[in-house]
Known about the structure:
Blueprint: H1 5-33, H2 36-49, H3 52-76, H4 85-98, H5 107-113, H6 121-154, H7 160-183, H8 192-201, H9 204-231, H10 238-254, H11 262-274, H12 281-309
Amino acid sequence: MVFSDKANQYLLVALKLIILVAMAIFLYNKLYVDNQGQLCALWQQITENLAVWTLICWIGLSFLNWALEARKWQLLTATTRPLSYTLAWKQTYASLAASLLTPQRVGEYGAKALFFESAKRKRILWLNFLGNMQQMAITLLLGTPALIWVSTKFDLPISRLNLLLLGLVFVLLLIFGWLIRKRQLLFQGLSLEALWSKTRALPNSILIWTAVHSLLRYAVFCSLLLWMLIGFGAPFDYWTLLPFALAYYLLSSITPMLFVLDVVVKSGLAVMIFGRVGVDQVPVVFAVLLGWILNFGLPALIGSWIITTYKKAAK
Length: 315
């Protein structure tokens, strides 16, 4: 069925309104219904014990986090359709808002692709995948040694079942990689070799700078978590807590979860890991909850507003 241009405009407006209303309901339930007690205690802690400049700096770091991601997206798309930084920033926030209710935020891929012409969407999917894999590579490179150190030195409770599940995931990834290579299952007509060739064909300057931005972004949100832990009363300094933060981000990155359970799962992981060094549960839960608000809740509201006002750039 082919809709008229007027009907398409009405459908687009309706979709934007649905996303905005769904985001408002989701954030209300997440912050007020599901975490009302913790949210009230967090607000009391902020108003009574935190300096205003500290909170301003935390908010600034959360915006810097997504500013770096927007700059990385601008670099990645430079060889496909050059974007202004403002447009890359809008697409980054809007795709975050549109991806919230999908497992591991996979909806981000489709959301970003919709900003481009249909002929370029396969390449946009690949560029987004490349950017996410760079971020994951940084997490693995820094988090794996930290997780091994924390596990051996502080007897982190990783059961045999968890190890078995990790092994099973590794085997499934190998099988999936073989299927992609032999059957070209990732994108139609695009094998793993083709993806690798396309990656190598990108200018080295883009690959290097996007990797640098991934590292800087990792440093920003890791520092924000540690600063909040210390600000909420964790009795340790930055460098003592750093390996635990690296291990936490690795585990939270590889743990499958729906976004609606994100805060619950991440809080549990953080309490388990930072509890090994003697950090009380209260500052950990406060830091994770406020981190979620600053890194996802607030940007999602901004992204929802961008979706309702976004006008597709001319081809």
